[in-house]
Specification:
By secondary structure, the protein is mostly helical. It is about 70% helix and about 0% strand. The chain has a two-stranded antiparallel ribbon with strand order 1-2. Strand 1 and strand 2 form a beta hairpin.
Length: about 280
């Protein structure tokens, strides 16, 4: 099919435009399906295709060959941020609608899903949600019902703005590629630094390992191993050490996180039962 002469992001109305504002809004909400068919071979590919499919069917109509090629390309490996994936959905649907070359569409997808993953994960998983979870957890621990309600409200807000990402990608079109390449590195680095700082604060506040073992030094006196020895040498050294042990097992040994969670529960119960912690 011939390529369109339209200019994305210029405000011009394309002659080949078949998608409506309602279609792009629905596309944005369908991005919640991104991880619906997650697998370790193609990661989010099946969910990605399910998100794109209604728009592709409307674009290609009776062109079964074109639809088949688009579906095949959209089943290739992808792993990106679920929160802002709508930007990439909208961008590629705009290119599909203009019947751009298939290799160009595939190239944009492969080039952009990693930086979108980096920016989205750094902002949402490593910054916004940990901060929010820490605040809301503290409120919930104190019996304040606003804590869980606030957490739910923010998650609902993240869902409701999904169409905005799709519209942004769709309206900017290919013009967005260069912009994203120029800014994604700086945004991702800044958000990652902030996120690591927040995670470090959360670890210090919420990870607590304290020994209750007393070592007798005379008939009338004893030394608490935690308060009288470890805390004076290196306060919170056990918490610090356990966190980095978990990190080492996850990063270097590729241990399943579920296994580490179960081991942590088991150790906590056993050490508590025997009066160690």
């Amino acid at each position: 099919m011939e390529s369109s002469d339209s200019v994305y992001g210029s405000g011009e109305v394309r002659a080949d435009k078949v998608l409506t504002n309602s279609d792009i809004t629905k596309l944005g909400y369908r991005t919640v399906l991104l991880q619906a068919g997650f697998n370790y071979e193609r990661m989010q590919a099946s969910g990605w295709l399910q998100t794109q499919l209604p728009c592709l069917e409307k674009i290609y109509k009776d062109d079964r060959e074109g639809l088949s090629a688009a579906m095949t390309d959209n089943l290739e490996f992808i792993n990106t941020s679920p929160h802002i994936v709508g930007f990439l959905n909208g961008l590629l649907i705009a290119m599909e609608e203009a019947h751009e070359d298939r290799s160009a569409i595939k190239g944009i997808k492969v080039a952009l899903f990693p930086p979108i993953a980096g920016v989205g994960d750094a902002i949402f998983w490593f910054t916004l949600l940990p901060i929010l979870a820490g605040i809301c957890s503290s409120m919930a621990i104190e019996g304040n019902p606003v804590g869980p309600l606030l957490f739910f409200a923010v998650y609902l807000g993240l869902f409701l703005i999904r169409p905005l990402w799709a519209r942004l990608g769709y309206n900017l079109g290919t013009k967005a590629v260069e912009m994203l390449r120029e800014t994604s590195g700086r945004i991702s680095k800044a958000a990652t630094v902030l996120g690591c700082t927040v995670i470090g604060g959360l670890i210090a506040s919420y990870v607590s390992i304290s020994l209750v073992v007393d070592i007798p030094v005379s008939d009338t006196a004893s030394v608490n191993l935690q308060a009288d020895f470890l805390d004076k040498v290196f306060p919170n050294i056990l918490s610090f050490g356990y966190v980095f042990l978990m990190y080492w097992l996850l990063k270097k040994k590729q241990v399943n996180p579920v296994v580490l969670i179960l081991v942590t529960f088991g150790l906590a119960i056993l050490c508590s039962f025997f009066g160690i912690l």
